[in-house]
């Protein structure tokens, strides 16, 4: 093989590596945008960018002058309007053990302990719902407990294994821990009586009480998922990805929690076992 052929092969290899890195970065960027609900932000960037490109290509001098004059105010306004989304993205970027830059699936291993934790929490939620007692439970994902609580928080560190009876003991009676949140890390209640940040959204429903606003605020600031039981209506809700989903059934809440925390639910496990037995 002569030098010219070798140089062409190396050129193709460099091109392949170059394109591979570009596609990889685009893929990771897309996942980051979807995970943090930033589609609206990216739509604004793309529309403004295409409009500016069109002005330059068509040599529209007046519009070009307007774009140049308003560029700085537009950038400032952009960061002000989308400040919560931008902050959340940078807070979650590269955080936690589950962040794996070179993992294309982004899925964690199945932990039966977390699945049992979810079952215990939902069992307590059902009983508290029937008794019309409020409940607020934060399931940490990559964020830490300090990130979801207020700076002056004086919650109690329990470090106890999650059980339905313990959660009902905390929330069923008017104790000092009843009005705060329980923070669950893995299969343990790390803190109880925690005070959380409230939502920054201006259009939060007036029907939501303090617990729902705190759940939504936690979902806006972190990647945690929050389980809420309404003291007034008994409705079970989940807050995650800057949104709150109100009035869920236990089955719906279980599916969402297991999926969000990357744990295979018991129903899915039983279905796989049935499929395997049918094949056998």
Tags for this entry?
about 280 residues; 7-stranded mixed beta sheet; 10 helices; disordered C terminus; alpha+beta
Tell me what you see in this structure:
The model is unreliable at 96-110, 265-273 and 275-280 (pLDDT under 50). A hairpin with a 6-residue loop joins strand 5 and strand 6. The protein has 280 residues and is an alpha+beta fold. It is extended and about 75 Å long. It contains 10 helices and 7 strands.
Summarize the model shown.
The chain is an alpha+beta fold. The chain has ten helices and seven strands.
| Gross morphology | extended
Name the poorly predicted regions.
Answer: 96-110, 265-273, 275-280
Give the CA-CA distance, first to last residue: 54 Å
Put simply, the count of helices is 10
If you average the pLDDT, what whole number results?
78
Major sheet description: 7 strands, mixed
Number of strands: 7
Structural class call reads alpha+beta
Radius of gyration, in angstroms, nearest whole number = 24 Å
Largest sheet, spatial ordering of strands: 2-4-3-1-5-6-7
Beta-strand percentage range: 5-15%
